[in-house]
Amino acid sequence: MDRISDGRREATEIRLRAYPPDILREEDFELHRAPVPRSLEAGELLLANSWLSLDASARLRMRESDSPYMPRITLGGPISGFALGRVLSSRRSGFAEGDLVLHSSGWRTHAVIRADETGWRGPHRIVEEPGMSEAAYLTALGPAGLTAYVGMVKLLDPRPGDVIFVSAAGGGIGSLAVQLAKIAGARVVASAGSAEKRDLVLGLGADVALDRRVPDLSAALRTAAPGGIHGYFDCVGGPELEAAIDNARPGARIVMCGTVSNYDTQSGSLPRNLFAIVAKELSVKGYLTRSYAELLPTVQAEMAKLVRDGRLRDRVTILKGIDSVPRAFVSLFRGEHVGKLLIQL
Ligand SMILES: NC(=O)c1ccc[n+]([C@@H]2O[C@H](COP(=O)([O-])OP(=O)(O)OC[C@H]3O[C@@H](n4cnc5c(N)ncnc54)[C@H](OP(=O)(O)O)[C@@H]3O)[C@@H](O)[C@H]2O)c1
């Protein structure tokens, strides 16, 4: 074992007290403080986290039973999630003190990455692109960027003139997906739950921004796209998916990235028009970003170029300090933040 000497004495991590049966509350979390680890085994890394990404899908793992997506979060242990950290000490080849690392031991100030942790969830040493902010490696140049790129560019693959509908368009992934669809030459109809987010997506190039809270979203989409939509990038499920199916042109493509409308409550509505998928011969494709992990370096370079050329903008809401995590995560399901929700430590 190597001894580590650094000035920090205390690490803080967020734990889940119990599996919330329905709507998540701040009180469902607790802060746990412990000494910063002082030694590492062979193959391990000690990181001081600088940025945490709060991702809606973590809610799916705060349930009694394992989700098909990932195992449930262990009570009394730290919560996992994407983060960026600097190496304080390394016993893993390819990582040196001071390196910036993307990994999945977030929701804590310090992380020990075990020797057996590899693959999509990291650790990945970041080769920093000139002119990019550190936080961009969690957004456009990170997991959110890869998710938007795979869903919009690789799977939905809009053609010039196509009408593409994007839901949760004021969120981290949706706001990138809107811009990628515009870059491909599509006409974009976006939906979001607040005036601030609708202004944001119009500013990012969307042609129409719908209020997802209107009583008849399907009618609103019909007015915005009278000839129907060629494609739908779904982050929400529920009413947005139903409206998309209603308004899909024959043979349209639906790419399902997430169904955030039922992560917190599990009682979100299901589309009532599923037969239209058959009748209109729609194709519906779900995907997991981790299945496309090998594309990360290519997408990073491509997104960096788009950012540098002024063709792609990252929108983030930044809250500071580990103590802000519980409130911030709960607010995510009330749609209170704009863009990707990040915590700066
Ligand atoms: N397939 C994959 O591998 C993969 C990977 C990462 C993320 N995802 C999925 O991508 C989606 C977006 O993630 P993100 O990181 O971009 O999230 P985000 O930045 O936190 O944005 C989430 C958005 O969801 C909307 N929202 C929240 N509760 C809602 C509800 N009940 N009904 C409708 N909209 C609601 C909010 O906008 P409003 O103002 O409209 O409420 C918010 O802007 C999620 O479904 C996530 O699970 C999938």
Automatic annotation (TrEMBL):
Q: Taking every annotated instance into account, which residue ranges of this chain make up the domain Enoyl reductase (ER)?
A: 25-343
**Oxidoreductase as UniProt keyword:** yes
A GO term for molecular function:
oxidoreductase activity, acting on the CH-CH group of donors, NAD or NADP as acceptor
Keywords in alphabetical order, please: Oxidoreductase
* Record has Oxidoreductase as a keyword: yes
**Pfam families named among the record's database cross-references:** ADH_N_2, ADH_zinc_N
CDD domains from the entry? PGDH (cd05288)
Q: Which InterPro entries match?
A: ADH-like_C, ADH_N_2, ER, GroES-like_sf, MDR_fam, NAD(P)-bd_dom_sf
Name used for this protein in its record: NADP-dependent oxidoreductase
